[in-house]
Amino acid sequence: MSSQVVKTTEELVLPILAEKNLELVDIEYVKEGKNWFLRVFIDKEGGIDISECGEVSEILSEKLDEVDPIKEAYFLEVSSPGVERPLKTAEDFTKSIDKNVFVKLYEPIDGQKEYQGILKDFSNNIASIEYKEKTRTKQVEIPFDKIAKARLAVVL
Q: Taking the model in full, what pTM does it have?
């Protein structure tokens, strides 16, 4: 059921975002405690502000009420993905070249399942990440289909 809610929400929100030149980053429908949350993460080049999130939320809320794909009570949240934005598509990776990323793998490469470093390249569905191991700089090539989760990473 959760995947159907996400699919329906995506179908409803994409035209709204296209009209406003905004990008859909992710949708999740999750239960936390006894409450259900439908979260829609949106963005644009240069970042998104709260008024844009509010506009999308209002329009999407009306559309969801018309279609009524969710039978139980839920909270709708429309927001920015934040500075540690998830990287879900090949296009997300391409846009993130030269940025710091954190990648979690389905299975180890060179004995590791997690890498954090600079995304140096993404071509032919392979992410090249430069990372530090103690005092040495290394590089790893990670096939896109081996990536379980990825996001931008903040380095302090």
A: 0.79
